[in-house]
Amino acid sequence: MENSKRTATCGSLRASDVGKNVILNGWVHRTRDLGGIFFIQLRDRYGITQILVGDNANDEVKKIASSLKPEYCIAVSGAVAARAPKDINKDMPTGEIELEAKDIEIFTTSDLLPFPIDEVRQKDGSIVLPNEDLRLKYRYLDLRRAPMQRHIMLRSAVTFAVREYLTQQGFLEIETPTFIKSTPEGARDYLVPSRVHPGQFYSLPQSPQLYKQLLMVSGFDKYFQIARCYRDEDARGDRQPEFTQIDMEMSFTNREEVLETTEGMLSYVFKKTKNYSLPAHFDRLTWEEAFEYYGSDKPDLRFDLKMQDASFMAGLSDFSAFKAGAACSSKDIPRHKRSGLKALVVKNVADKYSRKGIEALEAIAKTYKAKGLAWMKVNASKTFEGGISKFYAGKESEILPKLNAEPNDLLLFVSDEKWQTACTALGAVRKQLGKDLNLYNKDDEFHFAWIIDFPYFAWNEDEQKWETEHHMFTLPQKKYWDTLESDPASVKGDLYDLVLNGYELASGSMRINDPTLQQRIFKIVGYSQERADKAFGFLVNAFKYGAPPHGGIAPGLDRLIMLMEHEESIHEVIAFPKNTLAASPMDDCPSSVDEQQLKDLHIAIIE
Hints:
- The protein has 16 helices and 24 strands.
- By secondary structure, it is α+β, with helices and mostly antiparallel strands.
- It has an eight-stranded mixed sheet, sandwiched between helices. It has a five-stranded mixed beta barrel with strand order 1-2-3-5-4. The chain has a five-stranded antiparallel sheet with strand order 14-15-18-16-17, with helices on both faces.
């Protein structure tokens, strides 16, 4: 073939192109040999076109066609022809045409594949995927699969839409350093040894937090960055050692503006990339409401199954397990000293749950530190049966109306001396019920919600001290400033999380800009003046030079794409992720380095 450069892509040709002579480049997806007539599906990232090597093709082209195997990379020249009406494939965008091959050039051949690029489906329609480490070892092949191509293309489109929207709103895209000072931010830092400064280390940023605040002090009132972040923590489905945030910060702002800007950005992104309309404003729940009703500060609101307070039941029998949960259940008691007795009424499913099924739910509750999962069923005569029913026989008229329970309802309870444990454990059961019973509203594909009014401080039981719930630069709500030291349990932060379908998608806050207030926070959480100066002195010093009020948020890009594509792992939307051991089977990373490199860095390995 004299000229093998493509003149069209494998997804671009339509019936309007019939008669044109074109050149396609791509990979052999499938081949069929019908007794000397060959059909080849040629694929690139734009789509698939059927190639016909028919009776009119010369012997050389037929010979090449007969030798083709999956994933050979080839060029094909020929004329676009209309398929016969009976042969039209309505499931393919290019299904009305085929290319009658006049010439074929093989760019490169392919070894036997470690797994098929063409998807293998089971009878139920589910896709059979290779072992994940095998996929990661041959990630360049895995990325040829149609779902992976779709994920990566959506990621690119979302990133572009974010840049478009924020730039239109007056934000500046500014890069911050990836070699920074190590500061305690929760997870372990990844450290980078300095050759020039023996024995000293840079840290890779867990987030651009301190630098974006410094940009506000510098007068750049609207900043954003598609920021790479690094945290040395255990990997899981929605976590990686390196990840990407849509990092944003604004000056002379307040919570409402940050929330509205985020809502506007996400609405723009969803409409532009998926033609999906989000509500103008997202739901809002206080942190306390989220735990009271859903047992989580990242509730899945696609189904309406709310937990209820059942502390009244402790006085209706001598069932001792409920006594502890109701003992200190008043909302007037500080949350870290409060007990909890929570109930779930699962409508019209009592006949579907056997003892074994309930035990599976109990195992989930115990995973979240509950001592057990109490239960009973409401039968047709509106009396209780099974589980703890013997303790409440005859009390149905007092219990059923308060819990809004009816025949064939399943009642589930968690009681604990700690209110948050009771909420969290039953919340995990609620989440599992949503999956088991498919309770999701089909018209509510993407349910966003803001969680606001978080507690500012969390009590560390092991160390018997207060810690910040978010981070130490979060602004306490102004009405609590006078009682920070005297009543830390009551303090609420001017911070907010954005939740999507049961996942935390973004976290943000208004920031402290007063050095005196910042020092008070350091002192409450046990940071000495010397320690604070060493870790954060450069930021606090900057606040002495006219720091504006500011705040921001950082949606996780990986998690956003994962949820937009209805995947369960961010591995599916990152081009080259690490596995669950934070390693890359493809390039054997991390790996050892030679002795000279270590000497140059003044580092010795201790076995």
